[in-house]
Amino acid sequence: MKLGKTLLLLLVILLAGCENGNKNGSETQQAKAISNPPTETTHSSASWPFARMIKFQDRIYVGVEEKVESVEGKLGEVKHHLTEERFEEPDESSNYYKEGTALYQITGVPIESGIAVETGPGHYVKAVPVEEILGGSRSK
Question: How many whole angstroms separate alpha carbon 31 and alpha carbon 135?
Answer without folding.
Answer: 48
